[in-house]
Amino acid sequence: MTPLALAGQVVLNGRPLFPPIRLELAPGRWTALLGPSGVGKSTLLRLIAGLPIGGSFTGRISGARPVALMAQDPGLLPWLTVRQNAALGARLRGEAADPARLDAILARTGLAGHAARYPAALSGGQRQRVALARTLMEDRPLVLLDEPFSALDARMRLAMQDLAAELLAGRMVLMVTHDPAEAARLAHRICLLTEAGLTAQAAPHIAAPRPPAHPEVLACQGALLTRLIEAAPA
Amino acid sequence: MSLRRIASLVLITLGCLLAWQGLVIATGVPHYILPGPGAVAGAMISHQTVLARAALHTGAEIVAGFAIGAAGGAGLAVAMAAFPRLAAALRPALLFSQVIPIFALAPLLTLWLGYGMAPKIAVTALICFFPVASAFMDGLLRTSPACLDLAQTMGAGRWRAMWHLRIPMALPGLGSGLTLAAVYAPIGAVIGEWVGGSEGLGAVMIHANGRMRIDLTFAALALVTLIALAFHGLVGALTRRALARFS
Question: CB–CB of A75 and B161 under 8 A?
Answer without folding.
Answer: no
